[in-house]
Amino acid sequence: MTTLIERYVQEVVRRVPADQRDDIAAELKGTIADTVDARQSTVSSDAAEREVLTEMGDPARLAARYTDRPSVLIGPGLYPAYTRLLAMLLTVVLPVVVVVGAAVEVLDGGDAGAAIGGAVTTIITVGGQMVAWLTLVFAAVERWAPGTKLGTWTPDQLPPMRAPDDKRSDAVAHIAWHTLLIGLLVWQSTAGSVSTDSGERIALLDPALWNGWMWPILVGLGGLVVVGVLRLAARRWTTGLVAAAVVAELVFAAPLAWILYQQQFFNPVFVADVTVHDDFYTLATIGVVAVAAYEIVARLRTLRP
């Protein structure tokens, strides 16, 4: 079984329910191998593989046939192009629009609350418009030009093979990162991380945070570390682990975003020597909210079949 065929099969089976993947993969590999063998008398093995995969078509469309997914609004000829374009709009174009809008709000003299409110409004309104108009256009094409296909799929569009340990490496990186953050928070408070003009070493963050907000932040980070370790042990995301990860992310990110928004992040002694502009707090708050939202969505996506 060549890499090209393995990539094709992988792209098909990752779109079907987990309990059907092994059977579908075995059936698909057998069908492809038999068809390729039948053609090798007239063309080379590589050419036969490409011809067979090209005739089988887009893996997303083939997976839809295996799972009998209804596609009444947008037919199978347009559905793969629709989902890819929608994903690009929501994950590439929309974030750029949100960041630009928040930056313009800040440059116009708006405060952090106005920037965050504007970002949320942009996500809801612009994101909703993107979904609605794109769906309307594709549905119209499906109704008035049935059988239309946008582009011809070829094996060259297959993504590279995913290394088996990619997700495991990501989990290890998340555990290491969250553990490092816990260590840094404790270290900067106990050992002092910056020096004042008098030579005294002080904590970079406001010591008053240890009387309140620092504890949920540490609990959230600790929860993320524990979830990461359990995910490594289980070798997959379960519903319980995803729920725990979402809660831990919120427990960590919500108080962090709040203290940044309230400009209570840095030690007052440090701020007295160094000017911290309001723009920093605004952009940092937006950044924390955006990263937390991304992590939560990424965790929820792992529950999809």
- Terminal Cα span: 26 Å
> What is the percentage of strand-forming residues?
under 5%
Task: State the strand order across the main sheet.
Answer: 1-2
Please tally the β strands and state the result.
Answer: 2
Shape annotation: elongated
3D architecture notes:
With 305 residues, this protein is mostly helical. The chain is built from 11 helices and 2 strands; from the N terminus they run H-H-H-H-H-H-H-E-E-H-H-H-H. It has helices at residues 3-13, 21-39, 45-56, 59-67, 79-107, 112-144, 166-192, 214-234, 239-261, 268-273, 278-301; strands at residues 194-195, 201-202. Strands 1-2 form a two-stranded antiparallel sheet. Strand 1 (194-195) and strand 2 form a beta hairpin. It starts with a helix and ends with a helix. The mean pLDDT is 79.
Notable characteristics:
305 residues, mainly alpha, two-stranded antiparallel sheet, 11 helices, 1% strand, elongated
SSE order and pairing:
Blueprint: H1 3-13, H2 21-39, H3 45-56, H4 59-67, H5 79-107, H6 112-144, H7 166-192, E1 194-195, E2 201-202, H8 214-234, H9 239-261, H10 268-273, H11 278-301
